[in-house]
Amino acid sequence: MGLKRPADVEKVVVQEIDEESEEAPEPPPPSRAAPVAPVSAQSSASAPSRPRPHKEQAVRWRFSPAAEAIDDARCYARVQMDSRVQQCSNPRAGKDWFCLKHGEGRWQILGRVDGPIPKVQLSQLLKTAAADEAASGVKVLRRASLEAMEPRERNRRLEDKEKLLDRPHEEVVSQLLKQQEDELWREVLRVHELEDSCA
Question: CB of 123 within 8 A of CB of 129?
């Protein structure tokens, strides 16, 4: 079995305890929270509830499938299909970790699905992801930019066009700022849900 990222923070805590002691303690019941290391009183208010991965690890996880999705029967090479990075779909060749196609060292292009990504390929993946995000056309505009905008352009950006066409300029700008804030907040919540599902 290869190295997999932990699927659950509580399991990571239990695994660390298992490695240190001879007798494995029972995992906490679902109704109780997992044991957490004591934190000083000063940092307890600002400390995150879950440990954050290192930057390299977080970037690698962005371009890797979740631990539950890694299939031990398939090749462990990381491949790129239609701007998505995933595990190779071919079966493993014998006792080797890779299929016949990736067995000759071709797996090193994007690395193992559970390991690091080579720096050259990682920078290419990040550039591609940034280009995809830029192409989405989502822009956050400052109040000064919205106030300087032509009324026709400003109205094009509104979701509720009928309601605000006859409103004063300041009210339209405020509504646009609120709309942008709501969109950003929805995106933050979506990213948090993704992090929680991958953690």
Answer: no
Q: Alpha-carbon distance 8 to 33, whole Å?
A: 13
Domain positions in the chain are 9-22+51-134, 139-198
Give the pLDDT confidence of 112-155 residue by residue, as tens digits: 888 888 888 888 887 877 776 666 665 777 778 777 877 777 77
d(CA 176, CA 144): 12
Q: Is the dihedral of CA 60, 66, 67, 73 positive or negative?
A: negative
Q: Say if residues 113 and 76 touch (Cβ distance below 8 Å).
A: yes
> DSSP labels for 45-109?
TTS-SSPPPPHHHHHHHHTS--GGG--TTB--BEEEETTEEEE--SBP-TTSSS-TTTTTTGGGT
Interatomic CA distance for residues 96 and 122, integer angstroms: 25
174-187, pLDDT tens digit by residue?
A: 888 888 888 888 88
